[in-house]
């Protein structure tokens, strides 16, 4: 698959996930936020809590989930720490990491607090 096609599929997946969060009343405050350590696909707010969302798309939700590895989790966590460093409560800001899976039909499955395990 060409880079441009992959890029566009990624954008469509992120837009689908953004709709799910917005419809649930959570505000998307950043898209493709980039820190020194890497990028976070979406960042949402649910009251005082900041939600860092990694979006993965593939033919099935299971295949999408397998695309997230330990090195990427570490980069996302480092970027998240940088982001919340700018929040009023700093590193004491309540936050969680969600994994949003998008299948080939555009169906979205959200795994809340996916990095806790």
Which key phrases capture this entry?
Trna Endonuclease, Chain: A, domain 1, 5-stranded mixed sheet, alpha+beta
Could you walk me through the main structural features you see in this protein, from its secondary elements to its overall organization?
The chain has 117 residues and is α+β, with helices and mostly antiparallel strands. The protein has a single domain, classed as Trna Endonuclease, Chain: A, domain 1 (3-Layer(aba) Sandwich), CATH 3.40.1350.10. Helix content is 35%, strand content 32%. Strands 1-2-3-4-5 form a 5-stranded mixed sheet, with helices on both faces. The N and C termini lie far apart (32 Å).
At the fold tier of CATH, the topology name is Trna Endonuclease, Chain: A, domain 1
Mean pLDDT across the residues is: 94
* Strand fraction: 25-35%
User: Strand count, sense and closure of the main sheet?
Assistant: 5 strands, mixed
Number of domains: 1
For the CA atoms, what is the radius of gyration?
A: 14 Å
Structural class: alpha+beta
How are helices and strands ordered from N to C?
HEEEHHEE
**How many strand units?**
5
Per CATH, the class reads Alpha Beta
């Amino acid at each position: 698959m060409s880079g441009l096609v992959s890029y566009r599929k990624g954008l469509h997946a992120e837009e689908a996930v953004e709709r799910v969060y917005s419809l649930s009343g959570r505000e998307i405050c950043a898209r493709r936020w980039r820190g020194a350590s890497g990028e976070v696909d979406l960042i949402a707010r649910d009251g005082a809590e900041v939600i860092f969302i990694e979006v993965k798309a593939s033919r099935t939700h299971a295949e999408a989930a397998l695309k997230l590895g330990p090195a990427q989790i570490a980069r996302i966590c480092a970027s998240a720490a940088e982001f919340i460093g700018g929040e009023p409560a700093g590193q004491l800001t309540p936050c969680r990491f969600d994994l949003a899976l998008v299948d080939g039909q555009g169906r979205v499955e959200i795994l809340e607090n996916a990095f806790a395990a």
